[in-house]
Design a protein that fits this description.
Elements: E1 2-5, E2 12-14, H1 35-47, H2 51-68, H3 103-111, H4 116-121, E3 124-128, E4 133-138, E5 144-147, H5 149-191, H6 197-203, H7 205-224, E6 233-235, E7 241-249, E8 256-260, E9 281-286, E10 294-305, E11 311-315, E12 327-329, E13 335-342, E14 350-354, H8 355-361
Helix pairs in contact: 5-7
Amino acid sequence: MIDSPCPNCGKPLAENQCIYCGYTESVAPLLPRSPVMRGQASAQQSRGPTLLHLIAVGALVIAGAAIWWPSPPDVELADTPLVLPPEKGALDDGRQGSVRGSQRDRLEAGAAPRNPIERARLATVQLRTSVASGTAFLIDNSCRAFTNKHVLTAMATEDEGAADRNLRAAEDLVERLEERIESRRASKYRSCPSCRLSEIDDMLTSEFDRLNRAKVALEALREQFEDGSRGAVAMLADGVEVSLEVLWQSERSDLAVVRLNAVDCPYLKPAPDDDLEFGQRLFAIGNPLGLTHSVTSGVFSGYRRDEYGKRVIQTDAPINSGNSGGPLLTEDGRVIGINTAIARGATGIGFAIPYSRARDEWSGQIGG
């Protein structure tokens, strides 16, 4: 006798027992089910879980997770603007050779000097051209600076030599381009005897453009070094470069004054240079071998006489090529001299012109 289908596997029951899954009627649910219900349940089980089952289970899982999972706390975003640092070497007004605004404020804000020597570096500049360099230091807020006359002479001499070489090269280029155009004209005319000269020149537009550019460059080179200071620039402690002009060159000593194309510059204040003590600590700032704004130190070694018969300060603070025109300072950052020369073939013997002597020669022109 075959009974109704097995509620577990849907196979037919034999004597209230399923020979396929082992189900017996004795372990059937306590609540009776009608044959129709048993048939529906067995059909559903034979087909496995339906899409509705899966959707219902997923909804329950998501709801439970939403109840259990803590929501993130509210975050308040700070309304802080992005501040970019200034580009190093950039000029305030975007024009090469001039800087607007207070140089003192900009330099001190950027460097934040921690001692008098660091503050003195801000008033020291590098004078340079493409082939030579030296040092100067600012002496008033009008951006005038002391340096050595031989620094300007060396830069002018080197630049004149470089200018001569560049001029010769530029002149040769113009001459070669003109010869090339004439040769191309003749060649074009031979291949097109009926062509007019204007038509041939139209065919040589690129050659004429190159010739014109070469002529413009030649004229610029001819004008570049008229007064010995053209082409020279002063580089401030933060890398900004400005143009300069020569105001004065002494006829009695190795001194000169230049003025930077800037306003409100930091400057050095003087210290008495006639009461130095032997062994007193001194500092030199300069640009030796292109190492900009380098600081060296030594002591006061005594007073000597230079080739002009004038008194100079001797120190063992290292003074190398490129230091000329830079300041010699006391520990409190005040200038006592202008680094000028070293003893050839010796170590630790350098000389500086006393600041008071420079002040006397250029009397009434120094601020501060």
